[in-house]
Specification:
Number of strands: 8
Low-confidence stretches: none
Structural class: alpha+beta
Helix content: 40-55%
Shape: elongated
Radius of gyration: 23 Å
Strand content: 15-25%
Number of helices: 8
Order of helices and strands: HHHEEHEEHHEEHHEE
Mean pLDDT: 79
Distance between the termini: 35 Å
Largest sheet: 8 strands, antiparallel
């Protein structure tokens, strides 16, 4: 994005200089001269934009802090089940975790019809409703337009947040296998990681729920420190 700002600003500024000079000295046109000066101002404004408005390290720290906050809720309710990520409701991906330990899960329709509370009941199952830390990041990234799943995940996890150095995604077995290399952040919240996945995987699950329009859940996740492999199932 920084390169785009710079190239756009330089192009518009140079165009404005050319238009201003030709209009003033050759065409003697005040309106076209004013147009050229306006283009110069716009170009210089674009050149002055910061290369990185929000430092990626700060974004990762905010995600980590949000995960720790959710960790306290998971601990309080003794959550043991895997979370289910639902496609955007009012623009944001939401997640729910069953609070019962008998394996029962409500359907996505039952969750959507349930009262909008942190702790509620859907389909006769008590659930904890959450906004995953990556939900807003995924929405702000505007994923989906002309992107493959792998391209979208790479843009989100590598370019936007730098949570890892590369991402590969393959569809199969009713979901996606996501491989992340050069993972930089470890999720300090153990219960969060076991339910919603590590932060990179949680962010990937948010993106997959957005891209597919279907509920998703983390089937399994393996990590050897710098490489993580996650299996995300479509429901």
């Amino acid at each position: 994005m920084a390169g785009s700002y710079a190239s756009f600003g330089a192009s518009v500024a140079l165009f404005g200089v050319a238009v201003s000079l030709v209009s003033y000295f050759a065409l003697f046109s005040v309106p076209f001269t004013a147009l050229g000066v306006a283009c110069v101002i716009i170009g210089l404004s674009a050149l002055s934009l910061p290369e990185q408005p929000v430092p990626k390290r700060a974004v990762r720290s905010l995600l980590q802090g949000a995960a720790l906050s959710i960790e306290s809720l998971l601990e309080e309710f003794d959550v043991r089940e895997r979370a289910v990520y639902l496609p955007p409701m009012e623009g944001l991906v939401t997640a729910y975790v069953p609070l019962s330990h008998d394996g029962r899960r409500p359907t996505a329709e039952e969750v959507r019809a349930a009262p909008r509370r942190v702790v509620t009941e859907a389909g006769g199952v008590p659930i904890l409703t959450l906004f995953p830390p990556g939900a807003e990041v995924a929405r702000a990234a505007e994923l989906g337009e002309g992107q493959t799943v792998e391209d979208a995940l790479s843009y989100l996890l590598v370019d936007v947040t730098e949570l890892c150095s590369s991402v590969r995604a393959a569809e199969g077995d009713g979901g996606f296998i996501v491989e992340m290399k050069g993972v930089k952040e470890k999720t300090e919240a153990a219960r969060y990681a076991s339910s919603l996945g590590t932060i990179p995987t949680s962010l990937a699950a948010c993106a997959l729920a957005m891209l597919t329009g279907r509920p998703v859940t983390l089937e399994r996740e393996e990590s050897d420190g710098r490489r993580a492999l996650a299996q995300v199932r479509l429901l």
